[in-house]
Amino acid sequence: MPRNLKLTLSYDGSEFSGWQVQPGRRTVQGELQAALVRLTGEEHLPQGSGRTDAGVHALAQVVSWTTDSKVPTGNFVSALNDVLPPSIRVLSVEEARPDFHARTSAKAKTYQYRIYRGDICPPFLARYVYHHPYPLDEPSMRDAAEFILGEHDFTSFAAVDPERHERVLDPEEETNNVRKVFASSFSREGDELIYRVRGNGFLHHMVRNLVGTFLLVGKGTLTWHGLGAILEAKDRSAAGATAPAEGLYLVSVEY
């Protein structure tokens, strides 16, 4: 009987056209598949907990992959890291139950978005933060972040996705854009303003669109009370612009 493995990866998304395999493009899923083929000869695709876009990073992306290989899980870690590019690291490999799937078994995810507020962004940080040195009303942004707590229809914050949106719940949930946000907050850490959000699922570009809208609140062009009208509109054009990809990180996936 094939083994079902759960892999946890960390990667720098700057070098890749996102997670998902795309013809003629370098992707995280493609690199991982190539490494697995090299080690085992098995060509089926590893399945991630969700797709991260080009330039988006992951601290702990979860992947499921079935194999007939007898290689011990501990050996997989070192063997994969030997052949993967340095921008992708396998943190752990463990046996999973037969019905485990990285995407459909997930119960919650946490993302963070890093905004660098200093006048000059260090060159070694430029690929990992969104540099915004201009005035922002950060207390109002904190209020805005709390406004989205709970269950809402987030259609106004969802980009059009040719493959629908990222699934972390039962496929029956895919008929609507309702998601539940368990935690949503901004915090200051030195020169960085960091947004953290935890929810039971996220629509395509949802976190980046939320950040783009919160930035409008910070600039004073939108009051945090106006978020209610944006949610009610269920129209992407009602919300702010999509924040740049480089500031976004998938932090963790819960099962």
Report on this model:
- The chain is built from five helices and ten strands; from the N terminus they run βαββαβββαβββααβ.
- The protein has 255 residues and is of the alpha+beta class.
- It folds into two domains: 3-95, Pseudouridine synthase I, catalytic domain, N-terminal subdomain (Alpha-Beta Plaits), CATH 3.30.70; 108-254, 2-Layer Sandwich (Alpha-Beta Plaits), CATH 3.30.70.660.
- Strands 1, 2, 3, 4, 5, 6, 7, 8, 9 and 10 form a ten-stranded mixed sheet that branches.
- Helix 3 crosses helix 4.
- The radius of gyration is 19 Å and the shape is globular.
Q: Mind telling me which CATH architecture of the largest domain this is?
A: 2-Layer Sandwich
CATH level-3 fold name of the largest domain: Alpha-Beta Plaits
The CATH superfamily of the largest domain is known as: Pseudouridine synthase I, catalytic domain, C-terminal subdomain
What is the total tally of β strands? 10
- Helix-strand sequence: EHEEHEEEHEEEHHE
Number of domains: 2
Q: Mean pLDDT, as a whole number?
A: 93
Shape: globular
C-alpha termini separation: 24 Å
Roughly how many Å is the radius of gyration? Answer: 19 Å
Ranges with pLDDT <50 over ≥5 residues? 164-173
Task: Quickly give the structural class.
Answer: alpha+beta
Structure annotation, total helices? 5
Name the CATH class of the largest domain: Alpha Beta
Largest sheet report:
10 strands, mixed
Binned, the helix content reads 10-25%
Portion of residues in beta strands equals 25-35%
